[in-house]
Amino acid sequence: MVYLTRKIEFSASHYYNNPAMSPEENRRVFGKCNNPHGHGHNYVLEVTVAGTPDPTTGMVLDLKELKEILEREITERMDHRFLNYEVPELAGKIPTTENVAAVIWNLLEPKITRGKLHCVRLYETPDLFVDCFGDAP
Amino acid sequence: MKLHLNRRYRFAASHRLHSAQLDESENRRIYGKCNNPYGHGHNYVVEVSVSGAVDPATGMIANLVELDAFVGREVLDAFDHKNLNEEIPLFREQVPTTENLCVEIFRRLRAFPAARLDRVRLEETGLNSFEYAGEPEESNR
Fold it and tell me: Which amino acids of A are annotated catalytic?
């Protein structure tokens, strides 16, 4: 098994708020992230695909194909967007790094047909990142 | 959905690699420059990985404020700007290699109440790093 990783960057804004909680409770739990005007990050996404290299091409999957999937599914959907309002898959969810990583997994997993999506690693900052392995045991 | 939350922290500390079970020349041979009796220091980076269910009310595995406070209290306050050999009781008996320090940090963080500690990765410099995920037979909680 070979693991192939492709990295992309996108910039987006968000804020954290749970409408089921009072404004005071939201401020207490989410702190600065509760500012309703939003704030932003330069996200870095590392997508790892596992597979056996094709004997003819020597590739797990064509990087060009993966690049196009990431462009279409992630960059076009999330880059320079306000995640709370502009990404339908996040509607009703708090756009934490955990939830955004899980949404990215669900968007990419069915699109990667050569090899198998192994890990989505999403950096919100260089010091905070989430690894998502889907429903792996 | 299997998710791990990873957070990086920094502390600076000094140490000397020297084993009481070895003689002077053997210590010098094994540890080289790291055996300098006056010690030397590093900017350590600790990468802490935790996992657990995402709380639907917060969208979080663990609130970072709580994780930061716990790591701060258990690790950073104890180690930052300290001499590991002199000021950490364990390292009066154990050699403060990054291997031993990584295991000690894992043990100190294992009691984090809000999520399961999966792994500690410790960078001694940008070129050396060590990871510890507990022993297979022991529960992390």
Answer: 33, 80, 124
